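Example record

Each entry pairs one chain with its bound ligand, pyridoxal-5'-phosphate.
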Amino acid sequence: MKTYNYGKQHLSLGDYLAVIKTLRSPFLTCGPKVREFEQAICNYTGAKYCVAVNSATSGLHIALLAAGIQPTDEVITSPITFLASANCARYIGATVKFADIETDTANISPLEIQKYLTEKTRALIPVHFAGQSCDMQEIKALVDGKDIVIIEDAAHAIGSDYKNTKVGSCTYSDMTVFSFHPVKTLTTCEGGAVTTNNKDLYEKLLAYRSHGMHKEGDMTQTWEYEMRELGYNYRMTDIQAALGTSQLKRLDIFKKRRREIVDYYNENLGLPHLFEKDFSNACFHLYPVLVENRKEFYEKARQNGLNLQVHYIPVHLQPYYKELGYNVGDFPKAEEYYEKTISLPLYYGLSDKDLEEIVGRVKGLI
Ligand SMILES: *Cc1c(COP(=O)(O)O)cnc(C)c1O
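Structure tokens for the complex follow.
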């Protein structure tokens, strides 16, 4: 029996050749391929600046550092997300505040965010769940005139649009963070990127990515540099960047196929699913459905060759966050969503025949 995972990378001959070519070049890291990839992301999203990093987790961390977030500050994010959206604030020692989701999209609710805004709030991290854009204009309106940065966690959403902008254009935010982990739509094995239109943030992101070093001009032309803040080694290699640039060329093809699969499931499964809002045109990363007896469904799916996944255990219910004072019942919509959600296979390599097969197997489970 053919088995299907909930997600899977897609690599082409062009991807392999790009990697091999870079392996045979003088620069394995800190070379021209990273700049090329960053430029390609700028061209695709419309953002002015891009900093490639070794993961989205690192990207979120340096985005908060570049924004000057302090241990006394509060950062608001969604409970229905991967741990990193919240952990990045804890790296700095800042307080994480969660705001509940909207049931139809599982995205953070702007109305809920409003409840948690205080004079200590310094950053909002909306997460574009499954690839669907949050209502960025509404979120931006919440912080108008306030000293609060918006960092979009777009780990799921490379290729997605919001109104007539690309996610990552930072039209309604200060920075956007992408992930290129293999389960995401594009991959560089491990990797991420931060986009911004703000030159000052860009320069800080560059410094935090590499030990807090500032250099004037080309490093190959001078040995002088200055360390002004405590940075990290969050650099992406040239090999990864070459793979990323090659993958990015297929992003719109990936998007088209992913949407076809979502439409097919929506029409043929008859299971409750996400309802994308009109302002969003998602490059779908996940296809979550809601099922009764999720545990049993998960086990039976495994026996039928479907290796599914749950996105996500609400972050505030993790032992670490409970220790910080969160509890069951704090975010009822997120918890209710979690009880039933499970993600079906969604990736570029699924053929029409695979989809028929998967729908047949899923129908046998319900
Ligand atoms: C995958 C993911 C991350 C972390 O990405 P890495 O590149 O693995 O660090 C952050 N936020 C969300 C919503 C994710 O899905």
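The chain has a mean pLDDT of 97.
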